[in-house]
Hints:
There is one protein chain. The chain is α/β, with parallel strands linked by helices. The protein has three domains: about 20-215, Rossmann fold (3-Layer(aba) Sandwich), CATH 3.40.50; about 220-290; about 295-370, Winged helix-like DNA-binding domain superfamily/Winged helix DNA-binding domain (Arc Repressor Mutant, subunit A). The chain contains 16 helices and nine strands. It has a five-stranded parallel beta sheet, sandwiched between helices. Strands 3-4 form a two-stranded antiparallel sheet. β8 and β9 form a beta hairpin. The longest helix is centred in the last third of the chain and has 15 residues, at about 255-270. It is globular and about 65 Å long. The two termini are about 40 Å apart. Adenosine-5'-triphosphate binds near residues 15, 41, 42 and 218.
Amino acid sequence: MNPFSYGTIVTEPYFFNRVEEKDKIVKTLKGGNNLVLYAPRRFGKTSLIVKAMKELENAGYFCVYFDFMTVYSKESFIKSYSRALFEKQGNLKKILRLFSEYVKGIKPVLSYGENGKPEISFTFSEMSISDDMLGKVIDLPEKLALKSKPYIMIMDEFQDIQKLNGENFENLLRSHIQHHQNVHYLFLGSRTHLLMEMFTRSNRPFYNSASVMGLGPLPKHETIEFLMRRFSESGIQIDKETSEYLMHKAGNIPYYIQFLASEIWQSVIDSGKKVDHEMIDESFDKVIDLKNDYYFEMYDRLSRYQKKLLHALAQEGRNIFSREYALKYHLSATSTTQKAMNGLIENGLIEKQENEYIFSDPFFRQYILRLPA
Length: 373
Ligand SMILES: Nc1ncnc2c1ncn2[C@@H]1O[C@H](COP(=O)(O)OP(=O)(O)OP(=O)(O)O)[C@@H](O)[C@H]1O
Ligand SMILES: [Mg+2]
Protein backbone atom coordinates (compact mmCIF):
# COMPACT_ATOMS: atom_id res chain seq x y z
CA MET A 1 0.00 0.00 0.00
CA ASN A 2 1.25 3.41 -0.94
CA PRO A 3 2.19 5.21 2.30
CA PHE A 4 1.14 8.56 0.85
CA SER A 5 -2.33 9.84 0.19
CA TYR A 6 -3.57 12.93 -1.59
CA GLY A 7 -6.73 14.40 -3.03
CA THR A 8 -8.98 13.36 -0.19
CA ILE A 9 -9.42 14.28 3.43
CA VAL A 10 -6.54 12.62 5.25
CA THR A 11 -6.44 11.17 8.74
CA GLU A 12 -3.61 9.38 10.54
CA PRO A 13 -1.26 7.85 9.46
CA TYR A 14 -1.37 10.14 6.41
CA PHE A 15 -1.99 13.20 8.54
CA PHE A 16 0.63 14.75 10.80
CA ASN A 17 1.24 17.89 12.84
CA ARG A 18 -1.33 20.74 13.09
CA VAL A 19 -1.77 20.10 16.80
CA GLU A 20 -1.57 23.72 17.84
CA GLU A 21 -3.90 24.79 15.07
CA LYS A 22 -6.42 22.12 15.99
CA ASP A 23 -6.29 23.13 19.65
CA LYS A 24 -6.84 26.76 18.79
CA ILE A 25 -9.87 25.94 16.64
CA VAL A 26 -11.41 23.76 19.34
CA LYS A 27 -10.72 26.28 22.07
CA THR A 28 -12.11 29.26 20.18
CA LEU A 29 -15.34 27.46 19.30
CA LYS A 30 -15.76 26.01 22.76
CA GLY A 31 -15.32 29.52 24.09
CA GLY A 32 -18.45 30.48 22.18
CA ASN A 33 -16.69 32.53 19.53
CA ASN A 34 -16.84 32.31 15.77
CA LEU A 35 -13.69 31.68 13.79
CA VAL A 36 -12.47 32.30 10.25
CA LEU A 37 -9.76 29.98 9.00
CA TYR A 38 -8.10 30.84 5.74
CA ALA A 39 -5.40 29.10 3.75
CA PRO A 40 -4.46 28.75 0.11
CA ARG A 41 -5.91 25.79 -1.73
CA ARG A 42 -4.64 22.34 -0.81
CA PHE A 43 -2.97 23.30 2.42
CA GLY A 44 -5.11 20.92 4.45
CA LYS A 45 -8.04 22.98 5.74
CA THR A 46 -10.68 20.31 5.40
CA SER A 47 -8.53 17.55 6.90
CA LEU A 48 -7.73 19.76 9.87
CA ILE A 49 -11.37 20.66 10.37
CA VAL A 50 -12.45 17.06 10.27
CA LYS A 51 -10.01 16.37 13.05
CA ALA A 52 -11.22 19.33 15.09
CA MET A 53 -14.83 18.24 14.45
CA LYS A 54 -14.17 14.82 15.96
CA GLU A 55 -12.79 16.39 19.08
CA LEU A 56 -15.71 18.81 19.37
CA GLU A 57 -18.21 16.01 18.85
CA ASN A 58 -16.56 13.99 21.59
CA ALA A 59 -16.98 17.01 23.82
CA GLY A 60 -20.73 17.07 23.18
CA TYR A 61 -21.01 19.50 20.29
CA PHE A 62 -23.03 18.84 17.19
CA CYS A 63 -21.00 19.70 14.07
CA VAL A 64 -22.47 20.25 10.62
CA TYR A 65 -20.25 20.71 7.58
CA PHE A 66 -21.50 22.78 4.69
CA ASP A 67 -19.68 23.75 1.49
CA PHE A 68 -20.55 27.00 -0.28
CA MET A 69 -18.71 25.93 -3.40
CA THR A 70 -21.72 24.04 -4.69
CA VAL A 71 -24.16 26.86 -4.01
CA TYR A 72 -25.23 28.89 -7.02
CA SER A 73 -28.63 30.32 -6.01
CA LYS A 74 -30.76 31.01 -2.96
CA GLU A 75 -32.76 27.93 -3.79
CA SER A 76 -29.69 25.73 -3.98
CA PHE A 77 -28.48 27.20 -0.69
CA ILE A 78 -31.76 26.26 0.98
CA LYS A 79 -31.61 22.74 -0.39
CA SER A 80 -28.03 21.94 0.45
CA TYR A 81 -28.01 23.73 3.79
CA SER A 82 -31.12 21.89 4.92
CA ARG A 83 -29.77 18.63 3.56
CA ALA A 84 -26.54 19.08 5.51
CA LEU A 85 -28.63 19.56 8.66
CA PHE A 86 -30.89 16.59 7.93
CA GLU A 87 -28.00 14.27 7.20
CA LYS A 88 -26.60 14.67 10.67
CA GLN A 89 -29.88 14.02 12.50
CA GLY A 90 -30.60 10.79 14.26
CA ASN A 91 -34.29 11.57 14.48
CA LEU A 92 -35.40 12.45 10.96
CA LYS A 93 -39.11 12.59 11.82
CA LYS A 94 -38.46 15.26 14.41
CA ILE A 95 -36.57 17.55 12.09
CA LEU A 96 -39.10 16.97 9.31
CA ARG A 97 -41.87 18.08 11.63
CA LEU A 98 -39.93 21.11 12.80
CA PHE A 99 -39.06 22.09 9.25
CA SER A 100 -42.64 21.80 8.00
CA GLU A 101 -44.03 23.82 10.88
CA TYR A 102 -41.35 26.46 10.88
CA VAL A 103 -40.36 27.06 7.27
CA LYS A 104 -43.48 27.97 5.36
CA GLY A 105 -43.53 27.53 1.60
CA ILE A 106 -41.03 24.68 1.42
CA LYS A 107 -42.05 21.09 1.88
CA PRO A 108 -39.41 18.51 2.72
CA VAL A 109 -40.07 15.06 1.30
CA LEU A 110 -38.44 11.99 2.76
CA SER A 111 -37.90 8.92 0.62
CA TYR A 112 -35.69 5.88 0.78
CA GLY A 113 -33.13 5.08 -1.90
CA GLU A 114 -32.43 1.60 -3.28
CA ASN A 115 -29.97 0.87 -0.52
CA GLY A 116 -32.51 1.92 2.10
CA LYS A 117 -30.72 5.17 2.73
CA PRO A 118 -33.03 8.07 3.57
CA GLU A 119 -33.03 10.83 0.98
CA ILE A 120 -34.51 14.23 1.37
CA SER A 121 -35.87 16.48 -1.34
CA PHE A 122 -37.74 19.77 -1.24
CA THR A 123 -40.69 21.19 -3.10
CA PHE A 124 -41.25 24.92 -3.20
CA SER A 125 -44.84 26.10 -3.16
CA GLU A 126 -44.03 29.70 -3.98
CA MET A 127 -42.51 31.06 -7.16
CA SER A 128 -39.82 33.15 -5.54
CA ILE A 129 -37.80 32.79 -2.40
CA SER A 130 -38.52 35.42 0.20
CA ASP A 131 -36.04 36.72 2.75
CA ASP A 132 -38.35 35.35 5.38
CA MET A 133 -38.07 31.80 4.03
CA LEU A 134 -34.32 32.08 3.73
CA GLY A 135 -34.07 33.51 7.24
CA LYS A 136 -36.06 30.62 8.66
CA VAL A 137 -33.69 28.12 7.09
CA ILE A 138 -30.71 30.04 8.44
CA ASP A 139 -32.30 29.93 11.91
CA LEU A 140 -32.90 26.16 11.82
CA PRO A 141 -29.66 25.25 13.65
CA GLU A 142 -30.61 27.60 16.49
CA LYS A 143 -34.02 25.93 16.65
CA LEU A 144 -32.40 22.52 16.84
CA ALA A 145 -29.53 23.32 19.19
CA LEU A 146 -29.76 23.04 22.93
CA LYS A 147 -27.67 24.76 25.52
CA SER A 148 -26.41 21.36 26.54
CA LYS A 149 -25.78 20.38 22.90
CA PRO A 150 -24.57 23.44 21.01
CA TYR A 151 -24.18 23.37 17.24
CA ILE A 152 -21.04 24.20 15.29
CA MET A 153 -21.82 25.13 11.71
CA ILE A 154 -18.80 24.83 9.43
CA MET A 155 -19.02 26.84 6.26
CA ASP A 156 -16.34 25.88 3.74
CA GLU A 157 -15.33 28.14 0.83
CA PHE A 158 -17.34 30.83 2.55
CA GLN A 159 -16.15 33.59 0.21
CA ASP A 160 -18.33 31.97 -2.45
CA ILE A 161 -21.33 33.46 -0.69
CA GLN A 162 -20.60 36.47 -2.86
CA LYS A 163 -21.97 34.57 -5.83
CA LEU A 164 -25.42 34.93 -4.28
CA ASN A 165 -26.41 38.45 -5.17
CA GLY A 166 -23.54 39.73 -3.13
CA GLU A 167 -23.92 41.68 0.01
CA ASN A 168 -27.61 41.21 0.29
CA PHE A 169 -27.31 37.56 1.16
CA GLU A 170 -24.31 38.32 3.32
CA ASN A 171 -26.38 40.89 5.20
CA LEU A 172 -29.24 38.53 5.71
CA LEU A 173 -27.05 35.70 6.95
CA ARG A 174 -25.21 37.97 9.34
CA SER A 175 -28.36 39.60 10.68
CA HIS A 176 -29.74 36.18 11.56
CA ILE A 177 -26.76 34.38 12.94
CA GLN A 178 -25.80 37.20 15.26
CA HIS A 179 -28.84 36.27 17.33
CA HIS A 180 -27.90 32.62 17.60
CA GLN A 181 -27.11 31.68 21.18
CA ASN A 182 -26.29 28.01 20.89
CA VAL A 183 -24.71 27.90 17.45
CA HIS A 184 -21.11 28.86 16.74
CA TYR A 185 -19.70 29.34 13.29
CA LEU A 186 -16.49 28.29 11.65
CA PHE A 187 -15.87 29.94 8.31
CA LEU A 188 -13.28 28.44 5.98
CA GLY A 189 -11.95 29.67 2.70
CA SER A 190 -9.11 29.53 0.24
CA ARG A 191 -9.53 32.89 -1.44
CA THR A 192 -7.66 34.69 1.28
CA HIS A 193 -8.09 38.15 -0.10
CA LEU A 194 -11.86 37.89 -0.56
CA LEU A 195 -12.35 36.30 2.82
CA MET A 196 -10.23 38.86 4.64
CA GLU A 197 -12.20 41.67 3.05
CA MET A 198 -15.41 40.16 4.31
CA PHE A 199 -14.22 40.08 7.92
CA THR A 200 -11.91 43.06 8.21
CA ARG A 201 -13.62 45.82 6.23
CA SER A 202 -15.84 47.96 8.38
CA ASN A 203 -18.49 48.36 5.67
CA ARG A 204 -19.05 44.61 5.37
CA PRO A 205 -21.74 42.75 7.33
CA PHE A 206 -19.33 40.19 8.79
CA TYR A 207 -16.87 42.84 9.95
CA ASN A 208 -15.30 41.85 13.26
CA SER A 209 -17.72 38.99 13.76
CA ALA A 210 -15.11 36.25 14.17
CA SER A 211 -11.51 35.66 15.21
CA VAL A 212 -9.24 35.28 12.23
CA MET A 213 -6.68 32.52 11.83
CA GLY A 214 -4.40 31.64 8.92
CA LEU A 215 -3.02 28.22 8.10
CA GLY A 216 0.56 28.09 6.82
CA PRO A 217 2.52 25.27 5.18
CA LEU A 218 3.36 22.23 7.28
CA PRO A 219 6.56 22.83 9.26
CA LYS A 220 9.75 21.76 7.51
CA HIS A 221 11.20 19.63 10.24
CA GLU A 222 8.04 17.56 10.77
CA THR A 223 7.49 17.15 7.04
CA ILE A 224 11.01 15.77 6.58
CA GLU A 225 10.47 13.44 9.49
CA PHE A 226 7.13 12.29 8.02
CA LEU A 227 8.64 11.62 4.59
CA MET A 228 11.60 9.69 6.00
CA ARG A 229 9.40 7.62 8.29
CA ARG A 230 6.76 6.76 5.69
CA PHE A 231 9.34 5.77 3.06
CA SER A 232 11.33 3.74 5.55
CA GLU A 233 8.23 1.79 6.59
CA SER A 234 8.27 0.26 3.10
CA GLY A 235 12.01 -0.27 3.27
CA ILE A 236 12.88 2.74 1.13
CA GLN A 237 15.52 5.17 2.23
CA ILE A 238 15.54 8.91 1.76
CA ASP A 239 17.83 11.30 3.58
CA LYS A 240 17.01 14.68 5.08
CA GLU A 241 18.43 16.77 2.32
CA THR A 242 16.64 14.78 -0.38
CA SER A 243 13.36 15.04 1.55
CA GLU A 244 13.83 18.76 1.61
CA TYR A 245 14.41 18.77 -2.13
CA LEU A 246 11.14 16.88 -2.60
CA MET A 247 9.29 19.48 -0.51
CA HIS A 248 10.84 22.25 -2.51
CA LYS A 249 9.83 20.65 -5.84
CA ALA A 250 6.28 20.33 -4.53
CA GLY A 251 6.15 24.06 -3.81
CA ASN A 252 5.92 23.19 -0.13
CA ILE A 253 2.19 22.59 -0.54
CA PRO A 254 0.91 19.65 1.58
CA TYR A 255 -1.14 18.15 -1.25
CA TYR A 256 1.72 18.23 -3.78
CA ILE A 257 4.21 16.89 -1.26
CA GLN A 258 2.10 13.77 -0.81
CA PHE A 259 1.33 13.59 -4.52
CA LEU A 260 4.97 13.68 -5.54
CA ALA A 261 6.04 11.36 -2.71
CA SER A 262 3.38 8.89 -3.80
CA GLU A 263 4.66 8.95 -7.41
CA ILE A 264 8.23 8.44 -6.24
CA TRP A 265 7.18 5.57 -4.02
CA GLN A 266 5.50 3.91 -7.03
CA SER A 267 8.63 4.13 -9.09
CA VAL A 268 11.08 2.90 -6.47
CA ILE A 269 9.08 0.29 -4.63
CA ASP A 270 10.19 -2.56 -6.89
CA SER A 271 13.82 -1.62 -7.18
CA GLY A 272 14.09 -0.75 -3.51
CA LYS A 273 16.72 1.85 -4.14
CA LYS A 274 17.50 4.94 -2.14
CA VAL A 275 15.62 8.03 -3.27
CA ASP A 276 17.85 10.68 -4.84
CA HIS A 277 17.38 13.99 -6.66
CA GLU A 278 17.37 12.35 -10.04
CA MET A 279 14.47 10.09 -9.12
CA ILE A 280 12.53 13.04 -7.80
CA ASP A 281 13.13 14.94 -11.03
CA GLU A 282 12.07 11.91 -13.06
CA SER A 283 8.82 11.48 -11.17
CA PHE A 284 8.17 15.17 -11.37
CA ASP A 285 8.67 15.19 -15.13
CA LYS A 286 6.53 12.11 -15.53
CA VAL A 287 3.62 13.89 -13.89
CA ILE A 288 3.99 16.86 -16.20
CA ASP A 289 4.04 14.54 -19.22
CA LEU A 290 0.89 12.81 -18.02
CA LYS A 291 -0.87 16.11 -17.46
CA ASN A 292 0.38 17.64 -20.66
CA ASP A 293 -2.99 17.78 -22.46
CA TYR A 294 -4.75 19.17 -19.44
CA TYR A 295 -2.13 21.85 -18.94
CA PHE A 296 -2.15 22.72 -22.61
CA GLU A 297 -5.90 23.29 -22.52
CA MET A 298 -5.60 25.44 -19.44
CA TYR A 299 -2.87 27.50 -21.08
CA ASP A 300 -4.55 27.71 -24.44
CA ARG A 301 -7.66 29.30 -22.93
CA LEU A 302 -5.73 32.33 -21.67
CA SER A 303 -5.38 35.63 -23.48
CA ARG A 304 -2.07 36.49 -25.09
CA TYR A 305 -1.20 38.93 -22.38
CA GLN A 306 -2.09 36.49 -19.61
CA LYS A 307 0.24 33.96 -21.21
CA LYS A 308 3.00 36.52 -21.28
CA LEU A 309 2.42 37.36 -17.63
CA LEU A 310 2.36 33.70 -16.70
CA HIS A 311 5.78 33.17 -18.28
CA ALA A 312 7.12 36.08 -16.23
CA LEU A 313 5.52 34.76 -13.04
CA ALA A 314 7.05 31.34 -13.57
CA GLN A 315 10.43 33.10 -13.35
CA GLU A 316 9.67 35.30 -10.39
CA GLY A 317 6.60 36.46 -8.49
CA ARG A 318 7.72 39.44 -6.45
CA ASN A 319 7.45 43.17 -7.23
CA ILE A 320 5.50 42.35 -10.31
CA PHE A 321 3.97 45.80 -10.63
CA SER A 322 7.32 47.58 -10.57
CA ARG A 323 8.87 49.37 -13.54
CA GLU A 324 11.87 47.04 -13.44
CA TYR A 325 9.66 43.98 -13.67
CA ALA A 326 7.71 45.41 -16.60
CA LEU A 327 10.94 46.26 -18.42
CA LYS A 328 12.53 42.91 -17.73
CA TYR A 329 9.54 40.90 -18.99
CA HIS A 330 8.31 43.34 -21.62
CA LEU A 331 5.00 43.96 -19.95
CA SER A 332 2.57 46.82 -20.66
CA ALA A 333 1.03 49.34 -18.27
CA THR A 334 0.40 48.33 -14.64
CA SER A 335 -3.37 48.50 -15.18
CA THR A 336 -3.12 45.94 -18.00
CA THR A 337 -1.00 43.63 -15.84
CA GLN A 338 -3.40 44.05 -12.94
CA LYS A 339 -6.35 43.10 -15.10
CA ALA A 340 -4.60 40.03 -16.47
CA MET A 341 -3.52 39.07 -12.98
CA ASN A 342 -7.08 39.30 -11.68
CA GLY A 343 -8.08 36.80 -14.35
CA LEU A 344 -5.28 34.40 -13.39
CA ILE A 345 -6.30 34.61 -9.74
CA GLU A 346 -9.97 34.29 -10.59
CA ASN A 347 -9.45 31.00 -12.42
CA GLY A 348 -7.26 29.68 -9.63
CA LEU A 349 -3.92 29.44 -11.46
CA ILE A 350 -2.14 32.02 -9.33
CA GLU A 351 -2.45 32.88 -5.66
CA LYS A 352 -1.13 35.79 -3.71
CA GLN A 353 0.78 34.89 -0.59
CA GLU A 354 2.04 37.83 1.33
CA ASN A 355 3.95 39.82 -1.27
CA GLU A 356 4.47 37.05 -3.73
CA TYR A 357 2.36 35.72 -6.56
CA ILE A 358 2.76 31.98 -6.77
CA PHE A 359 1.48 29.13 -8.90
CA SER A 360 -1.24 27.10 -7.15
CA ASP A 361 0.17 24.07 -8.94
CA PRO A 362 3.99 23.76 -8.92
CA PHE A 363 3.83 21.24 -11.79
CA PHE A 364 2.03 23.75 -13.96
CA ARG A 365 4.73 26.29 -13.21
CA GLN A 366 7.32 23.86 -14.50
CA TYR A 367 5.17 23.15 -17.55
CA ILE A 368 5.19 26.88 -18.35
CA LEU A 369 8.94 27.13 -17.83
CA ARG A 370 9.42 24.39 -20.37
CA LEU A 371 7.35 26.12 -23.05
CA PRO A 372 9.07 28.41 -25.47
CA ALA A 373 8.35 31.95 -24.24
N1 LIG B 1 -1.84 17.58 8.24
C1 LIG B 1 -1.53 16.99 7.09
N2 LIG B 1 -0.59 16.02 7.05
C2 LIG B 1 -0.26 15.43 5.89
N3 LIG B 1 -0.81 15.71 4.70
C3 LIG B 1 -1.75 16.66 4.66
C4 LIG B 1 -2.16 17.34 5.85
N4 LIG B 1 -3.11 18.20 5.51
C5 LIG B 1 -3.28 18.07 4.17
N5 LIG B 1 -2.47 17.15 3.65
C6 LIG B 1 -2.37 16.77 2.22
O1 LIG B 1 -3.04 17.73 1.45
C7 LIG B 1 -4.16 17.16 0.76
C8 LIG B 1 -5.30 18.13 0.72
O2 LIG B 1 -5.88 18.26 2.01
P1 LIG B 1 -7.29 18.93 2.23
O3 LIG B 1 -8.27 18.44 1.24
O4 LIG B 1 -7.59 18.78 3.68
O5 LIG B 1 -6.90 20.44 1.91
P2 LIG B 1 -7.82 21.68 1.61
O6 LIG B 1 -7.05 22.89 2.02
O7 LIG B 1 -9.16 21.50 2.20
O8 LIG B 1 -7.88 21.58 0.03
P3 LIG B 1 -8.90 22.29 -1.01
O9 LIG B 1 -8.35 23.66 -1.19
O10 LIG B 1 -8.76 21.45 -2.25
O11 LIG B 1 -10.26 22.26 -0.39
C9 LIG B 1 -4.45 15.88 1.50
O12 LIG B 1 -5.07 14.94 0.65
C10 LIG B 1 -3.05 15.45 1.93
O13 LIG B 1 -2.38 14.83 0.87
MG1 LIG C 1 -11.09 21.60 1.34
